[in-house]
UniProtKB/TrEMBL annotation:
<dbReference type="GO" id="GO:0016887">
    <property type="term" value="F:ATP hydrolysis activity"/>
</dbReference>
<dbReference type="InterPro" id="IPR003439">
    <property type="entry name" value="ABC_transporter-like_ATP-bd"/>
</dbReference>
<keyword id="KW-0067">ATP-binding</keyword>
<dbReference type="GO" id="GO:0005524">
    <property type="term" value="F:ATP binding"/>
</dbReference>
<keyword id="KW-0547">Nucleotide-binding</keyword>
<comment type="similarity">
    <text>Belongs to the ABC transporter superfamily.</text>
</comment>
<feature type="domain" description="ABC transporter">
    <location>
        <begin position="4"/>
        <end position="233"/>
    </location>
</feature>
<dbReference type="InterPro" id="IPR027417">
    <property type="entry name" value="P-loop_NTPase"/>
</dbReference>
<dbReference type="InterPro" id="IPR017871">
    <property type="entry name" value="ABC_transporter-like_CS"/>
</dbReference>
<keyword id="KW-0813">Transport</keyword>
<dbReference type="Pfam" id="PF00005">
    <property type="entry name" value="ABC_tran"/>
</dbReference>
<dbReference type="InterPro" id="IPR003593">
    <property type="entry name" value="AAA+_ATPase"/>
</dbReference>
<protein>
    <submittedName>
        <fullName>ABC-2 type transport system ATP-binding protein</fullName>
    </submittedName>
</protein>
């Protein structure tokens, strides 16, 4: 069942700029979906609409079946978010900040707060002032805030921006844990293709406000009919490959097979033609290759 449904969103800003053009996609319960696109592609506008902070011209977002535009508080009761830079009261502790911020929404449960602070690895610093926190700790406090009260769905807007490699890895592990331990559904808005590759089940790619792709993260799938060849006999290989009806790109050494030919059959022909084959592997395109090909960057 879809937990979050983005339905036919169109948004034109008052300055005439079209930020979103009929964008739809959905997220199933328990999945991690990456939202990708160049600067200005419309990712933050989608998040803003999903959080009820931006009004779409057309379309709506439904969370657990409730329309954000029609039943705002009901829909948003299922969502936690890290959206833009997190702001805290610097002279209060992490614990006090959580208490104040949660109380604004009329909800506070001390045991739950303790549990979440432990989950994000902040329990031992919870009573220190936030002005003493590192950037990584602030992001973990923002995550704790997003998780109170336990939402079904988490929206993360560039959550690892500015973190060092250790902080990025730590944050990634937290997020994967949230899915495995709590079955959380997570929308991740990120510029970091490697992050999306490592964390997401599926992705949506936007270009100039339009959806260009929705599906599995491409690098997780072997591309049918494309092999990577490593050989010292490039000229001989090229000849054997073209006489079998396939194509070799001499720069990338990728071989594209015609539909009737199987990889092991072409490998046999290469060996029979006397080509010294160092390696012959099904090609897994990276998300970067796929993304740049699609967005024409
Ligand atoms: N408040 C606003 N008023 C006018 N135009 C806006 C406003 N907010 C965003 N835009 C424009 O809408 C388009 C989409 O912006 P958006 O912030 O959603 O893109 P993004 O994909 O999140 O970009 P980035 O990766 O740089 O954060 C851009 O052309 C942007 O300039």
């Amino acid at each position: 069942m879809a937990l979050l449904e983005v339905c036919n969103l169109t948004k034109r800003w008052p300055n005439g700029r079209l930020a979103l053009d009929d964008v739809s996609f959905e997220m199933r319960q328990g999945e991690i979906l990456g939202l990708l696109g160049h600067n200005g592609a419309g990712k933050s506008t989608i998040l803003g609409i999903t959080l009820g902070m931006v009004r779409p011209d057309e379309g709506e977002v439904r969370i657990a079946g409730h329309s954000v535009q029609q039943e705002r508080s009901r829909a948003l009761s299922h969502v936690g978010a890290i959206y833009e830079a997190a702001h805290f009261y610097e002279y209060l502790s992490g614990w006090q900040n959580l208490r104040v911020l949660c109380s604004l929404s009329g909800w506070w449960d001390e045991d739950e707060a303790k549990r979440i602070l432990k989950l994000v690895n902040l329990a031992d610093r919870a009573h220190h002032k936030t002005k003493t926190y590192s950037h990584g700790m602030r992001q973990r406090l923002a995550l704790a805030q997003a998780l109170l009260p336990l939402p079904k769905c988490l929206l993360l807007d560039e959550p690892t921006d500015g973190l060092d490699p250790e902080g990025i890895r730590e944050f990634r592990e937290f997020v994967l844990k949230l899915r495995s331990d709590l079955g959380m559904t997570i929308l991740l808005n990120s510029h970091l293709l490697a992050e999306v590759e490592q964390m997401c089940d599926r992705c949506v790619i936007l270009k100039q406000g339009r959806k260009m792709y929705e599906g599995p993260v491409p690098s997780q799938e072997k591309k049918q009919g494309v092999f990577h060849l490593q050989t010292r006999d490039l000229a001989k290989a090229k000849e054997a490959i073209s006489s079998a009806g396939a194509m070799l790109d001499p720069v990338t050494q990728l071989v594209e097979l015609p539909p009737h030919l199987l990889g092991h059959e072409l490998l046999k022909s290469l060996v029979e033609a006397g080509v010294r084959v160092d390696s012959w592997q099904p090609h897994k395109p990276t998300l970067e290759e796929f993304y740049l090909g699609l967005t024409g960057a």
